[in-house]
Write a structure and sequence with these properties.
Helices cover 0% and strands 57% of the residues. Strand 9 (91-100) and strand 10 (106-110) form a beta hairpin. It has strands at residues 2-7, 10-12, 18-26, 30-39, 46-51, 58-59, 67-72, 77-82, 91-100, 106-110, 114-118. The strands form 2 sheets. Strands 2, 4, 5, 6, 9, 10 and 11 form a 7-stranded mixed beta sheet that branches. A 4-stranded antiparallel beta sheet has the order 1-3-8-7, with no helix packed on it. The protein has no helices and 11 strands.
Length: 120
């Protein structure tokens, strides 16, 4: 069994910064891609940023230049550094990971989400 646990959400003023962290635990052989998605009220869930086990990162156009995704493979952790936050960044942010279990089965996992509110 695998769990993804997020932390770091909260209330921040426009122009401020927040750091989200997500750690995977459980029956993990290896982790392929990891990423962050978000869902604003009344909207569909959308990709924010992804980072593969090796290779280049990918960002939504709306966050390019403001958000940075990184990962620590030794700690099974992915981090989203969010700068210059805007009210339109307000959403529940979900961690996502494609994980190969100790039984060599690849499955997609989601965290429960962490709320980010950007407001003055």
């Amino acid at each position: 069994q695998v769990q993804l646990v997020e932390s770091g959400g909260g209330l921040v003023q426009p122009g401020g910064s927040l750091t989200l962290s997500c750690t995977a635990s459980g029956s993990i052989f290896s982790i392929n891609a990891m990423g962050w998605y978000r869902q604003a009220p009344g909207k569909e869930r959308e990709l924010v940023a992804t980072i593969p086990s090796g290779g280049s990162t990918n960002y939504a156009d709306s966050v390019k230049g403001r958000f940075t995704i990184s990962r620590d493979n030794a700690k099974n952790t992915v981090v989203l550094q969010m700068n210059s936050l805007k009210p339109e960044d307000t959403a529940v942010y979900y961690c996502n990971a494609n994980i190969r279990s100790n039984l060599y089965i690849d499955l997609n996992y989601w965290g429960k989400g962490t709320l980010v509110t950007v407001s003055s």
